[in-house]
Write a structure and sequence with these properties.
The chain is of the alpha/beta class and about 190 residues long. The protein is about 30% helix and about 30% strand. It is globular and about 50 Å long. Bound molecules: guanosine-5',3'-tetraphosphate (G4P) and sodium ion (2 copies). Homodimer.
């Protein structure tokens, strides 16, 4: 997606060979015009996938997921990282191991909002090691729902998540694929 790559080139900050900071439009401040374009692009890519729900993980996945769901005219669910007071029973919970943070956490979705027969489009802001996307896929499985596909805003193609998900048979569509972050430069695949 050209508009997204332009934004990354102009505003992305290479923090290290592993980490790209994009907090001016995706991870802190949000550019809604860009998010709407992202949503339209995912909706177009998955137009024939009979998506019934969009599933993401709080917090940075929510903006692109909402725009995608708006275009597909379906609801969006965000998995929660902390258990809420009102969210107790009938939870689908999965562990996520973050290699970046070197810690394990739990993510949960209420059983009320996912059902057998649902076709789930997983959307997330970044794909690195794929652990978050795999946890969401396992949540869909717990609900006996199908994963219709995985939409990623920025895939770090030099990390193993994309290959892992595609090997498992998931259709992964990434709007920008970063091949490397060497020499302080963003190189697209
Ligand atoms: P994985 O799910 O692919 O295995 O990724 P990982 O554990 O490495 O990611 C942990 C957090 O770091 C996630 O955000 C992920 O989106 C984010 N992340 C990973 N690589 C990058 C990067 O290069 N740049 C930026 N800006 N973020 C990256 P999170 O902790 O879930 O936070 P939130 O922003 O969704 O609240
Ligand atoms: Na993030
Ligand atoms: Na994320």
């Amino acid at each position: 997606m050209e508009l997204l790559k332009k934004k990354i080139r102009e505003e992305g900050i290479v923090l290290s060979e592993q980490v790209l900071k994009v907090d001016s439009f995706l991870n802190h401040q949000i550019d809604p015009v860009l998010m709407l374009e992202i949503g339209r692009t995912f909706a177009g890519l998955f137009a024939d996938s009979d998506v019934t729900k969009v599933l993401t993980l709080e917090s940075s996945g929510i903006a692109p997921a909402v725009m995608t769901a708006l275009e597909l005219k379906v609801n969006v669910i965000f998995a929660r990282k902390r258990k809420s007071l009102t969210l107790r029973d009938g939870l689908f919970t999965e562990k996520v191991y973050s290699f970046t943070k070197q810690e394990e956490s739990e993510v949960s979705v209420s059983g009320k909002f996912l059902s057998p027969g649902d076709r789930v489009l997983i959307v997330d802001d970044f794909l690195a090691n794929g652990e978050a996307a795999l946890a969401m896929a396992r949540i869909a499985m717990q609900a006996q729902a199908e994963v219709a596909g995985i939409g990623i805003v920025i895939e770090k193609a030099f990390q193993p998540g994309g290959a892992k998900l595609r090997e498992q048979g998931y259709r992964v569509e990434s709007l920008a694929r970063v091949a490397s972050l060497g020499n302080g430069q963003v190189l697209f695949a």
